[in-house]
Task: inverse folding
């Protein structure tokens, strides 16, 4: 179990590094933090899809709430309890309007859970593909699952 968790954390660091390099080439302004609560559910051989409830806390301005789904295409076998994903938001411009995170994102995902587990998702997208979601915390969850492949997330801005 420790070996599996260590490999997962190591792979998550590689993904985070790749995301950082890609984001630095694509965008340069750190805007805030997006925290998503991921619904529990089953992963199937070819993938999974789970609901997310997200809160974006910008470095400047008002907090925003988003709902949506996060999906994996590739190997995703098993069950995971609820989890939390945390990303640093990096954008091409510091002039993001409310709701700017709404849209589709895609990138790499990898994770393993045996009792306690972790995964990482490096995603790009949003308005005109100008937003990078850099993992600053791996997903913490419980269950029995293994996943690797392409990740996708769709977010919808919840106007207050």
Result:
């Amino acid at each position: 179990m420790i070996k599996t968790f260590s490999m997962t954390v190591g792979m998550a660091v590689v993904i985070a590094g790749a995301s950082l390099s890609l984001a630095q080439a694509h965008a340069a302004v750190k805007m805030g933090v997006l925290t998503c609560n991921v619904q529990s559910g089953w992963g199937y051989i070819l993938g999974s899809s789970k609901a997310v409830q997200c809160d974006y806390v910008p470095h400047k301005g008002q907090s925003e709430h988003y709902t949506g789904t996060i999906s994996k295409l590739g190997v995703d076998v098993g069950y995971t309890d609820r989890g939390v994903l945390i990303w640093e938001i990096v954008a091409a411009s510091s002039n993001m309007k409310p709701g700017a995170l709404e849209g589709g994102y895609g990138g790499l995902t990898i994770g393993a859970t045996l009792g306690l587990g972790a995964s990482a998702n490096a995603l790009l997208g949003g308005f005109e593909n100008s937003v990078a979601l850099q993992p600053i915390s791996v997903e913490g969850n419980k269950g029995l699952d293994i996943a690797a492949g392409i990740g996708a997330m769709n977010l919808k801005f919840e106007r207050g």
Summary: The chain is about 15% helix and 65% strand.
